[in-house]
Amino acid sequence: MHDEFLCHVTAYGVCGGRRIGVPLGTYRAPTLALALWWLRDRASWMAERLDPRPEAEHFPPSSLVPVADTVPDVPAALRDWCGDVVRQELVADELAAGRLVRIAMSDETTEYELLAESVDALRMQRTLPALVVPVA
Hints:
The chain is an alpha+beta fold. The chain has helices at about 30-50, 75-85, 85-95, 120-130, and strands spanning about 5-15, 20-30, 100-105, 110-120. The chain has a 4-stranded antiparallel β-sheet. The longest helix is centred in the first third of the chain and has 19 residues, at about 30-50. The radius of gyration is 19 Å and the shape is globular.
């Protein structure tokens, strides 16, 4: 069982013809449960900012408009992921096995990425090249 996890949230877009990543948060989770909680919290946080409630008082009237049905609904996909117990269990199993987990969703302009990995697995990957030394 892996005990500590690095979690990252990043948004990627194109600026000046180059793909640019904008970090939206990083968390070093001391437990698997906290890693999953943080990923769900950040996914929910992004969904709320991408698709806020129109009745929220800090938006002037008519400042939010619906988008076409053909536009990918990233906020809905993020909310669905947060509420899907089966997918949460799959993520937990992958992380517990020491594998990198990447959840990515895109709309027309931006890719949103949730990433988590075991600190133990990272340490083991760093030491493997040192352990494999060719003998002349």
